[in-house]
Amino acid sequence: MFSLDQTTSAKPQVVLEFQAIILAGNQGNIYPLAADDNLPKALLPIANRPMIAYPLQWLEATGIQNIIVAICSSSEAKLTHYLRNVYEGSAHIDIVTVDEHFSTAEVLRYLAPRIFQDFIVLPCDAVANPQTAYPQRFLDSYRSANPALTALFYEPPKSEGGGGSTKDSEWPLYVGLDATQQRLLYMRPGDRVKEALNLRMPLLRKFTRLNLVTHLQDAHIYVCKKWILDLVVQKKELTSFQKDVLPLLVRAQCRPSLLETEGISAIMDAARQRHKYNQSVHEWSTTVADDPMEPELRVNLYIASSGFMGRADSVPHYCDLNKHASRLFPDDRVAKSAEINSRSQIGADSMVGNLTKVDERTSVKKSVIGAHCVIGKNVKIVNSVLMDYITVEDGAKLDGCVICNNAKIQAKAQLKDCEVGASLVVDPETQAKNERIVSSFIPSGEEGMQVNFG
Q1: Residue 183 and residue 301: Cα distance in Å, rounded?
Q2: Do domains 19-326 and 333-442 have the same CATH topology?
Q3: Are 42 and 52 in contact (CB under 8 A)?
Q4: What is the pLDDT averaged over residues 138-154?
Q5: DSSP 8-state secondary structure symbol assigned to residue 43
Q6: Who wins on pLDDT, 131 or 82?
Q7: Closest alpha carbon to 383 in 421, 342, 422, 415
Q8: Where does 19-326 sit in CATH, by number?
Q9: Listed residue (402, 393, 395) closest to 323, CA to CA
Q10: Predicted local confidence at residue 5, as pLDDT
């Protein structure tokens, strides 16, 4: 994905060689945005489009039509409605409900009976320009090198601030690569590095052009040989694809003993035998290469070196992606059905959704406002994301905030770097900074009314 240096209007050919799996079950570290009383993570708006629309459109841009979307029971009704009745793509989407506590490898293990060929795994929160992020080069790099796996990496966009009360501790990811061969040779999260990195001599002897970088992030998008799924099925101790399966394969490239002790060689040999048998039975094959894999285990990477890409895997990243993605749709910045008072100011870096009303002397900068919102007079909104059906009364100020569906910000409230949960009411003249307002309980008594936020 996301060689964003190419634009095409041509309809892609249907690709039969891959199945795709979008992981949309786990809500991740994005509370209170993804919550039962608001929206599933996969439906959170990015530039007023559901998050999952981006990976779906990315896959369809490659011609991939066979897509499995793994969801959990708590989001089943809302996601199924969107995928069946709202999403306008042409792909065949198979919706499968999985245990909400399943990790990525466990989801693949559960889906194994439905996967019959090489496959692509991607998260629902991968966001790029659906109009110009034509991902053929990513898949072509896999086709031409024919590795066991190709992982997509990208350079994260620069944060512009804001993003609610949660501030990420951004640990670097140490990535060792051989750019001449597109090989992924080493991965180590920064939070696991104590004093120094340990690089084994066999690795350094075999790959003399190894470069160690910290500016890249793993997109969690992988195109894989079918036999990798066999490995996941057999080795039940592998729970996370990114933390367990991928590092194991990367290490095994330079450690022949791992190939044997972990059973990788046997699984690869069995895959070769199946391929030879299939070729003897059929005159044609849907695989690109004559052999399903090279004799040597290879793990490759593809770097999205230009354009826009990111993951909405935290509240700050979600806010940043809204601002970046809003610039991808210059013709849709202010919906035609929105009512904008002539004495208000909507910045060229902002979006306003359908049927939203903005009253006079209101200023909106670097923000995304959803549909059916009512914004009063003398309101200032900066660096914020407002979802749908939100009311902001006169004189309120929002700076660096995320406001969930159906919330109400009453007159002259001032919030900075706050998250307001769905259907919450923020009292008039409230002043809050770095607060997560996620629920309210309002008992009434003889001495008046008390509001507790928890």
Answers
A1: 6
A2: no
A3: yes
A4: 92
A5: G
A6: 82
A7: 415
A8: 3.90.550.10
A9: 402
A10: 37
